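Fig. S4 source data, part A: sequence.
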Amino acid sequence: TSSNKARVDYEKATGKTLPRNVDVDHKDNGGRKGKDHMKNLQTMSHSKNVGKENKRRAKKVAKKKAVKKKP
């Protein structure tokens, strides 16, 4: 997956092995095309990363519902 690839890329570039509770997050998800360059990657705790993703998904669902309501 993109998150695994990003983690490997980040660890190679920095030369550090990250703890299991730390995720490599994409600042800009980029959808399917993905953006794994170093400028787009950041480390954050797993819980913060999950919270960030949940917020992003909630906005996406709300946007879809708003579009469907239009006749």
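Fig. S4 source data, part B ends here. The beta strands are 22-26, 41-45.
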